[in-house]
Amino acid sequence: VTGPPVVDTQFNLCAWVSIVVPSAYYFWACGPDLWRRSPLLPVCTALLLLTTVLLLLLTSCTDPGIIPRPVMQLLVEDLEEEVREAIGCRDLPTDASRTERDPDLWKQLEPLGFEWCRHCRMWQPPRAKHCRDCGCCVLRNDHHCPFVNNCIGQRNYAYFCALVFAASCSGIAVLGGILVWSSAHDEETSNWPLMFALVIGPSSAVVLGLIVLLSFHLMLIVRGQTTREVLRP
């Protein structure tokens, strides 16, 4: 399960580059010397890097909670019942031919928080939203993240939050190791401005952004809200 490849490829590639390039520099230039001082920091950094990569793959490839359109529900055996159970409404009718909402049914479903999706031509359960990038409705849709090439919804939100946390810790470990190594080899390092411009500066900006993003989602978790509910109340 991934999002639109044409739209998200550049952002997803940017995410991988932001992870791989600083880490590669860390293990190539700083790793051997740091290992001789103490293996603990390189080992912890490697574990954080592997965890970040694994969580990025899980976030990208996990179904965020896509609600199949009515025509698909009717074509696939037992899918209609599975969808009804997932949205918590077993009596909801599935009509693939309907193009507009039923006014009588709307009066019953509106107080329960249901909305009519004019794109998928079906009823959305509470907190589900349509993603224009992926072209589908997603359960508890938080937002579409081009950096992971997927929507963030009910089924992969935990992976996403863990990814942001692991990436923040990994970035701090990599930057810390580079700074420790650089301070110990300050007199030998003649390319400090270039290293700062290409590695330390951009990596610091990414880590700072991740920390801000993590703080924002921690606030959302405490409040029991989604990004869409905060930005588009």
Number of strands: 7
Share of residues in strands: 5-15%
Q: How is the biggest beta sheet arranged?
A: 3 strands, antiparallel
> In order across it, which strands form the biggest sheet?
1-5-4
Low-pLDDT residue intervals, each spanning 5 or more residues: none
Calculate the terminal CA-CA distance, rounded to whole Å: 28 Å
Specify Rg, calculated over alpha carbons. 23 Å
Query: Which range best describes the helical content: under 10%, 10-25%, 25-40%, 40-55%, 55-70% or over 70%?
Result: 55-70%
Element order, helices and strands? HHEHHHEEEEEEHHH
Structural class: mainly alpha
Number of contiguous helices: 8
What is the approximate shape? elongated
Count of all domains: 2
User: What does the average pLDDT come to?
Assistant: 87
Short summary:
The chain is 61% helix and 9% strand. The protein is mainly α and 233 residues long.
Report on this model:
By secondary structure, this protein is mainly α. It has 2 domains: 146 residues, no CATH class; 74 residues, no CATH class. Helix content is 61%, strand content 9%. The protein is built from 8 helices and 7 strands, in the order ααβαααββββββααα. The strands form 3 sheets. It has a 3-stranded antiparallel beta sheet with strand order 1-5-4, with no helix packed on it. Strands 2-3 form a two-stranded antiparallel sheet. It has a two-stranded antiparallel ribbon with strand order 6-7. A hairpin with a 4-residue loop joins strand 2 and strand 3. The radius of gyration is 23 Å and the shape is elongated. The protein starts with a helix and ends with a helix. The mean pLDDT is 87.
